[in-house]
Amino acid sequence: MVSRSFVAIVLAVVISGCSQPVSRTGSYDEGLTTVKDLQSNVQQMSRISLRPTPIEEKVSGPRLEQHRKEIEGKTEEQLIELAGPMTSSLESRSFAAFALEASVSTSANRIALYLLAMNNFREDVSSEYLGAIYEAIYRAELAKSRGL
């Protein structure tokens, strides 16, 4: 199992690598899984734009329909609150995270998004929640680098 601190470090390197040119000062073993994962993540994240997208591009199915009323029309701040630890329903938290993943376009709530990542729930076995929050963080960092 990968530790949360390792994942946070990888996220920081990916964000850094996507917002500015990466200079290779050392040699990397291209055959290592971690190096391949990092390169893949940098490529994937660099294709993300700040254009809000429909949540259906992130998640679909009957579970989305069950939670649509709960997340539709909410502000970013309201979605952050819904995705936070004070919400008792883990599924509601996850769908709020998916909505953030699809919609963050400024850096206004960047710190709050980091706090969501730090307060991830242990029952997130598939890491869907955390992955959505990480993408929202990346979008906020990208907006910050563009002065938004």
Describe the protein in words.
The chain has 148 residues and is mainly alpha-helical. It has two domains: 1-47; 61-148, no CATH class. 60% of the residues lie in helices and 0% in strands. Helix 1 packs parallel to helix 7 (128-145), helix 3 (62-71) packs across helix 5 (90-103) and helix 4 (76-83) runs antiparallel to helix 5 (90-103).
Report the average pLDDT across residues.
Answer: 80
Main sheet properties: none
Shape: globular
- The number of helices is 7
Reading the helices and strands in chain order gives HHHHHHH
pLDDT under 50 segments (min length 5)? none
**Total number of distinct structural domains:** 2
Give me the Rg, rounded.
Answer: 16 Å
Number of strands: 0
Report the helical percentage. 55-70%
Q: What is the rounded distance between the termini?
A: 36 Å
Which structural class is indicated by helix and strand composition?
mainly alpha
In short:
The protein has 148 residues and is an all-alpha fold. The chain has helices at residues 4-19, 33-46, 62-71, 76-83, 90-103, 110-118, 128-145. The radius of gyration is 16 Å and the shape is globular.
Structural descriptors:
148 residues; mainly alpha; 2 domains; 7 helices
What is the topology?
Layout: H1 4-19, H2 33-46, H3 62-71, H4 76-83, H5 90-103, H6 110-118, H7 128-145
